[in-house]
Every structure is written in structure tokens, then in C-alpha cells.
Amino acid sequence: MLVNEKKHAYEHLRTLFGADCQADAFLARYTAARVGGQADVLLLVNSVEALAQAAQQLWELEMPFRVLGGGSNVLVSDDGVRDIVLLNRAREIEFDTASDPPAVWTASGVNFGSLARRAAAHRLSGLEWAAGIPGTVGGAIFGNAGAHGGDVAGNLLMAEILHQSGTRKTYSVDEMGFEYRSSRLKREKIAAVVLAARFALTSGDSATIQQKMDDYAEFRRRTQPPGASMGSMFKNPPGDYAGRLIEAAGLKGTRVGNAEISPLHANFFINHGGASASDIYALISQVRQLILQEFGITLELEIELLGDFLPLG
Ligand SMILES: Cc1cc2nc3c(=O)[nH]c(=O)nc-3n(C[C@H](O)[C@H](O)[C@H](O)COP(=O)(O)OP(=O)(O)OC[C@H]3O[C@@H](n4cnc5c(N)ncnc54)[C@H](O)[C@@H]3O)c2cc1C
User: Fold this and answer.
1) Considering the domain 4-88 in this protein, what is its CATH number?
2) Ligand 1 site: residues with CB under 6 angstroms?
3) Which of 83, 141, 163, 275 could form a disulfide with 258 if both were Cys (CB 3.0 to 4.6 A apart)?
């Protein structure tokens, strides 16, 4: 429930954003793992300009907020989120087939997988590796998403970033400071929003592009479990795989409530229906403790925690 101060803030935002502003919105429906409590206030944006304006307004009103893209790399607390949640559904796309190299400009709320498939429909190659990634372009840039040997750093030409100061800046790949599943924005917790991006592509042959995407999809089907999850829970430690360690510790199939460490891929934690964030968090704690005990390795989360959680040991 909204307390008075929040209620006042909500009413003010409602006058600014109308029906796109919702109170007490359940976040489970906006996350890939299908868990999470309520956001006191959820603000839906449908274009790059609406995203920029909303972020700017919230900074000016000194109202803390978090951008939520596909919700495929976050675990939202059962108690929900007190910061305002800015749900990014900015979905403009423009292909530039005449430029050299060919490129695509995309809003940050576009689903990354569907961007890859749209590029393929234009006979443009380069993003095949991204076809199975469920989140948005903004989330992928924030965390330098990658798969099958490709990653955002390898394709990005530039990202348009809005800063709290109101400055709208174009970042080159070097300026983004990409590392394994990380960017400068993520590491340095910079108060900034990814508005849009431009990716380099190459002209290709439809059948070859499609074949590559089919092969990657088949690989995922064979090696990754279906069902509600956040993808890989932990980053791979240097020279090893989180999944291999969890499997070696005998934790595959471990359950807390309706949350399970997948018997197919030990770095995927599945919500079989009705699991809570606390169930998943209990599995995270258990895995970290046992891996430290057995192998002397502290696994680092690949996903992010949204809302309040007890500190991990
Ligand atoms: C089944 C499954 C398979 C997956 N496979 C892969 C894979 O192969 N490779 C891989 O790298 N990941 C994978 N993931 C994880 C996830 O899909 C990616 O990390 C994805 O890029 C996250 O994007 P998102 O929009 O869902 O981000 P969210 O989960 O919504 O947000 C993640 C973080 O990014 C921030 N953020 C989001 N948008 C913006 C923005 N516009 N500006 C500033 N900050 C922003 C959020 O505030 C949050 O801190 C998988 C997930 C699932 C569920």
C-alpha cells in the first residue's frame, strides 16, 4: 500500500503521465522468473522521447527510479520495490541498409532477440548470436549480454545515454568500458539511462543467417531448460563454469519450495510455478556457501537483486 508521501508523489506523477502511471503494480508479470512483489509506482514508457522525458522529470523531482527492461536479469524481492520502476517499452527501429557498414538504430526497449530476427529478415547478419536473448537492448548494453561467442561489445557502434545532469551523450564502445557481463554504467552505478543504440551489421544471405540462428536455438534447446528463469544465475569464475561447479557439488535438482536448480543446466534456477523470490534467494545462498566450502570459490551473481534482500554471506 502507498504511504502518504508516496501517494502524493503518485498523484503528481499521474497528472504528468496519466494512465501510464500505475500504483501498487505487481512486478512478477514483468519479470522472466515470474516472481516479485509490487512496485509502489510503475511508469510505462513507449518511446525513446517518453523514456528521456520520464527519466529527466524523475531526476528533477528527486524521485529515485530503476529502469526495468525485459526483467530477465533481475530477481525482484517479494516485498517489491520502493523506487519508481520505469518500464521501458520504447520500440522504434530503423534499418540503414545504405550505410557502410549497414547498421540498425534501435530504441533501448526493443527485445534483443526480435531485433536479431528483424535484421535477418532484412538479410543483415551479425546479431544471430542474440536471437535467443529474452531481454531488451538497454538491458543487454547495461550488462554486455553475450552468447555463442558474440556479445554487445562486438557489434555496438554507439549508445545514446541520458545522464542525470540532463546531458545526452553518444558513447563509443570504448567509452562503454565493456567487460564480461558488465559495462561502466553497471560497475560504476552511473545515474544514466540507455535511450537507444546503433549496431553494425553486414549484408548476408537469408538462408545462411537463418541456419545460424536455427543452430543456436537448437543448442539452447539441448543445453538449457525451458520454464521461468533468469538465465545464468552466476557469472563463470575465471577458467571455469559456474554450472560445472554447482553440478560437481551435487546440487542439481535441489529445491526450495517450487524453485529448483535445473537438472539440465545447474546455473539455471527454475520457477515451477508459485515460487517466491525468497525461495530462489535461499537456493542462491545455499549454492554460494557450498561452492566456497568445496572449491574455495566465491560465485558472483550475474543477475541483479531489486528491492530488499539480506546480504549474502
Ligand atoms: C532464458 C534466459 C536466457 C538467457 N540467456 C542469456 C544469454 O545467452 N546471454 C546473456 O548475456 N544473458 C542471457 N540472459 C539474461 C538476460 O536476458 C540478459 O542479461 C538481458 O540482456 C537483460 O535484459 P533485460 O532488458 O531483461 O534487463 P532487466 O533484467 O530488465 O534489467 C537488468 C539491469 O539493466 C538495467 N537496465 C535495463 N534497461 C536499461 C536502460 N535502458 N538503461 C539503463 N539501465 C537499464 C536495469 O536497471 C537492471 O539493472 C538470459 C535470460 C533468460 C531468462
Assistant:
1) 3.30.43.10
2) 32, 66-74, 88, 108, 133-136, 138-140, 142-143, 145-147, 193-194, 229-231, 304
3) 275
